[in-house]
Structures are given as C-alpha cells and as structure tokens.
C-alpha cells in the first residue's frame, strides 16, 4: 500500500514538496485555503543567494544548493505540465553607490562574482544612473516569473503527476497523541495520512506556537521596451526584475508591523517608485501596469523552519521569508528525503523548529506546543 502524505499549504513550497513526494511514489493530497495569498504567488522570483548578501554559513549553503537545482527542477516541471516555467538565468547585477558596501557579498569558490568598475558598469547596463561607484555581477544567479509562469506550471505538473488538490479548504485542527500526529481536520472533515506537512507560510503560527509572522511587502510592475534592462538589478533600496517581454517588476516594501492588513497604500509605493527611478531614470516614463501585495513568512532569525516537527510524523516547511522561490527545490528534496527515506541531511539541523529558545525573545510564547485552533485565515 502506498505511503500517504497530507500537505497543508498550496503555495509554491507546498506544491513543490507534494510534487517531489508524488514522483517518489507517495500518494499526496494538498489542502489549501487561499493559495492566491501565498508569498510565492506574489514574489518577484529572484534567485539571489549571493546578490542578497547572505552571510557565509548554513543559509548561504542552502541557497546555493537550491540555485544549483533550478535548471533541472524547472525542466521537469515544464515536461510534466507542458507549460513554460518562467526560469531565466539572466544573472544579477548589484549596483553600489557606497564603497563601504563592496565587501559584504559572499564569493564561494564555486560561484565567484565579478567586480565592475563605474565605467564597466555603465557599459554593461547603460540605463543605470551615472554616479554609481561600480557593482557586483553574479552571472550564475537569475529569476523565475512566479506569478505568470512558475506557479501555474507547478500546479499543473503536480496535478499531472497525480497529486490531489483540495482548494478553498481550511485546516481546522491538528490532533496529537504522544509523539504522533494522529489526524488533522479540515472544514470538509478528518484527514488521515501516514505523514503530514505543514507549509502554510505566514499563517503557520495558527497551528504551532512557532515564531512565524507576516512581513507585508508591496510591489508594482511597469511596461518597458525589452531592451531597456536584460539583467536583474539588486539595488540598495529596491530591486528591479525585468522579464523577457519587457515587463519590469519592482519591489518590495518591508512592513513588519502591518500584520495581515490587505491592500496597497500610497506612501510605501511612492517611496519604492522613487528608489527605482533614482536607480534607473528611464523608468519614470514607463506605464504603470499593476500593483499588488503579499505576506512574507518571517522568523526572528530570518531563516526557514524545515524538517521533522514536534510529532514524529509531522514535518515543517515554513518561514522562508524572502527566499521561498529560491529555496523551493531544495526544500522539496530535503523534506522528501526525510519523510520517505528517513534520511536527514546534516544541513537541516540549522533549520530545526526547536532552534528557538523555550521562550522566544520576539513572541514570548512557549515552544513547541501543538495548537488545536480554528483559524480565520490559512493557506
């Protein structure tokens, strides 16, 4: 009889795990209340462990490993779905105006960056403003068009592989006895499985007393000529992500106290637009296409929570913060290894749920109790 897994959360992380499990032979059902609100559905899709300046250590290692999986992972998704994944290894440019920031970017031996002088930078990307001191070029980094391509392709690939999706279905209760999660209940009734995965993003605190909380981000897009920008720009105050068809995605605000407040607001968007135009002046003449917002699932140390949880058959994949799109392939691989093969990669130790103190300094809530709660909003 096939091993059965229930995945709660139908965003990119939940679907990536579900697809990997199914391709390894498990029977998988995904329950999602509102996948449209998932951070991965609204992200710009940068694949930028070095450009983001992640410090040398487990988080950078996780990001580099995941980035190395992207080409084969998206190729598999495209083959299963028959759709374009939106993956584009276009490289990322980090333009700098302050020499003090030059040395904060990691350069592992397998993925060195290239420093461009001010003159080289102008030749490489003429649309940038003229007073920059130079910039780092990371040719191995890139992007994925998560909103228009990857998410729908991933969803289609999961369905094609045999994953069963239950959309618009809210998780209501988790029932634990001893060291096992015995069952879960949704608004449609009980869910029985051999293993359970909690991948509900910023809503994960509804089910476990984990320090996962929303950090709202607002973004906008512009339409430009496709030749204006051909590489992602990771600026000091904004990032600019050009798509192949000339659409330009600009992000993102970081609103840690906004909670789940919905909607776009004028002030943060005005500031974001000003930063983008200051970096690439020609953007001032580009038509505005769309504005949107989402909720990053953050933790106090800004690292995800991955692996086995407080019950032996409960597995966690949440708290990816800014890096959900980047980390989707490695999260799926490591979780599937642990769930189906009982094999725990040493790297997962740094991302355990119990790395936080018994009383987390941000939430002052005891960890890690299981919560049998009714949530008003959950993925």
UniProtKB/TrEMBL annotation:
Its EC number is 1.4.3.19. It catalyses: glycine + O2 + H2O = glyoxylate + H2O2 + NH4(+). One of its GO terms (molecular function) is glycine oxidase activity. It is an enzyme of class 1 (oxidoreductase). Residues 5-337 form the FAD dependent oxidoreductase domain. One of its GO terms (biological process) is thiamine biosynthetic process. InterPro entries: FAD-dep_OxRdtase, FAD/NAD-bd_sf, Gly_oxidase_ThiO. Keywords: Oxidoreductase, Thiamine biosynthesis. It holds the Pfam family DAO. Pathway: Cofactor biosynthesis; thiamine diphosphate biosynthesis. GO terms for cellular component: cytoplasm. This is glycine oxidase. It comes from Synechococcus elongatus PCC 11801.
